[in-house]
Amino acid sequence: MNGKATRIELLSLRTPQMRAFHLSWMAFFVCFFAWFACAPLMPVLKGEFHLTPAQIANINIAAVAVTILVRLVIGPMCDRFGPRKTYTALLALGAIPVLGVALARNYETFLVFRLLIGAVGASFVITQYHTSVMFAPNVVGTANAASAGWGNAGGGVAQGAMPLLLAAVLMLGVDHALGWRLALLVPGVLMLAMAALYWRYAQDCPQGNYAELRARGIAIDGGKKGGWDSFRAASANYRVWLLFITYGACFGVELFIHNVAASYYVDRFGLSLGSAGMAAASFGLLALFARALGGWLSDKVARRRGLDARTTLLFVLILGEGLGLLWFAHADHFALALAAMLAFGLFTHMACGATYALVPFIDRKALGGVAGIIGAGGNVGAVAAGFLLKGLGNLQLTLSVLGLVAVGAALCAIAIRFSADHKASEQALYDNALAN
């Protein structure tokens, strides 16, 4: 398996595989924290900029729209330049709009910075790419899901931490107009610090960095002929587009809920900003274990029943997400709404983990393209949900429609099939990993 790790040693940093695992989820965590730092402060920002419902909808759409394009590009960039250089560049450049949003003086400038901040959401693709090239088939699902889940938790932490950070700044005697700006500087500084760590301690694959390996004449799967060949190969694979839809149904819903949950609890149930932020944070914090659980289950069922079992599991999880989302949409009391959100959130995060537990097996020679296109599907789903809310003008109705869409999208998972030769090849790699 070209030096890929066959075990996950969580307490170890001595191997390049485990350094990549920990650095990738921490970088992803910081990026997601920065991406969603504005969301729990929207009730404050709404008053600061005198935002209308339509403008708030535009901001929510902008937050995830540009990520579609960047995710499509970032996968082939990983194939071409390697995940180390790509992640460092994204962290350093992404910190610019994150810091800049604190300087916004009106709706228009805030909207532009919010749009640019969406680029950091492409960090997910690099995280999944890096763990995919570092871990063998018997544990790659768990590695992908755990790194993504712990990184994803940054969105949930932002929901609970940003109101507390704002409160701490206000306790120092700073007024609201300056307080939220100071609070939003924190994630930008964290991104710059993480960029330095990634450049210093990460490497592209078990053998070293791509540039050095190519200089020695060593071929690299996926990045052998350049990133765009990887993208073209991935875009010609129908399985990629089916997973594009399913990921839109699970991760797209996750992004949408991150952006609207706090405001939903304030408007529908009359919660305070702090209480609503904590309730919304509980959804994001499920990623701490639920994504990893989805990937772990995918690895387990594959060990017993082969590659097709991964697609069956994904179908079950997305179906459960859709049914739980319908329950959440029709919950009339806060306690029921919270219970429903935790239930459908569990299925949502597990489905995200199960999706990227399947990604490394779609086309090993086009891994960057596959990861990028499917990752972009999540943001397409979030943008579509944002436009749906803007068109319907009713969040409860929007959630109901999204629940029905998720149920339908589950059928895409069950439609994914692999040839006998493909399954035999993957099984041989799997057996070799277990033998090691």
TrEMBL record:
Superkingdom of origin organism: Bacteria
User: Chief subcellular site?
Assistant: membrane
Q: How does it sit in the bilayer?
A: Multi-pass membrane protein
Tell me, what's a Pfam family for it? MFS_1
Please give the InterPro entries that the UniProt record associates with this protein: MFS (IPR011701), MFS_dom (IPR020846), MFS_trans_sf (IPR036259), NO3_transporter (IPR044772)
The residues that cross the membrane are: 20-42, 54-74, 86-104, 110-129, 150-172, 178-199, 240-257, 269-290, 311-329, 335-359, 366-389, 395-416
The answer to whether keyword Hydrolase applies is no
Q: Which UniProt keywords apply?
A: Membrane, Nitrate assimilation, Transmembrane, Transmembrane helix
Q: Where in the cell is it found?
A: Membrane
Output the CDD domains linked to this UniProt entry: MFS_NRT2_like (cd17341)
Q: According to the UniProt entry, where is the signal peptide?
A: none
Q: Which residues form the Major facilitator superfamily (MFS) profile domain?
A: 20-424
The family assignment reads: Belongs to the major facilitator superfamily. Nitrate/nitrite porter (TC 2.A.1.8) family.
In Swiss-Prot or TrEMBL terms, this protein is called MFS transporter
Q: Which organism is it from?
A: Cupriavidus malaysiensis
